[in-house]
Amino acid sequence: ARPHKLYTLVFPVDTATSKVLLGMKKRGFGKDKLNGFGGKVEPHETIEQGAVRELQEESGLTATHIKKIGLLFFYFENDPVTMEVHVYQSDRYDGRPMETDEMRPEWFGVHEMPFERMWADDSLWWPYALENKRFVGRFWFKADQVTITRQELREVDSL
Ligand code: 6U4
Ligand code: NA
Ligand code: NA
After folding, report:
1. Whose CA is nearest to atom 28 of ligand 1?
2. What is the residue with the minimal CA distance to atom 24 of ligand 1?
3. pTM, rounded to two decimals
């Protein structure tokens, strides 16, 4: 099997105002894109623990509840390692968003997502999240990290 690396991606949601917190990534992979909060799962932690930790480190929010909404696999041209990304929403968290070294946080309406400033796959699977459907997707990217050359996306009963 091809080597996989495990990642998390968490979207804090304010259900009262129907807004989602995104962060403008200031460095590293996906720099200058808006995205949820997440990163590599470390060897000593569960995937959920990694999700909560990365959200805290990057946004200042401490999630008291997260739910898994999707599973995404990304394949990049010229990179043998598959990115396996576990996607969560959190509607319960303590603290206020704060800018960190990695992310500049900003709220957006869940129906007004800035897809032109996000990864190209996000506009394809976000509708599933809006309809409370769980999803599994696979996206093949060119080395430019912009162009999707092949995709698979479907609703699943459980993750
Ligand atoms: P370090 O190395 O510690 O600075 P770390 O925060 O652990 O980095 P990072 O930020 O490189 O990891 O993780 C990449 C993040 O980008 C993860 O949250 C997954 C997310 N991501 C990667 N490709 C994506 C894509 N095509 N669409 C998307 N999110 C993606 O929505
Ligand atoms: Na990160
Ligand atoms: Na990390």
Report:
1. 119
2. 119
3. 0.97
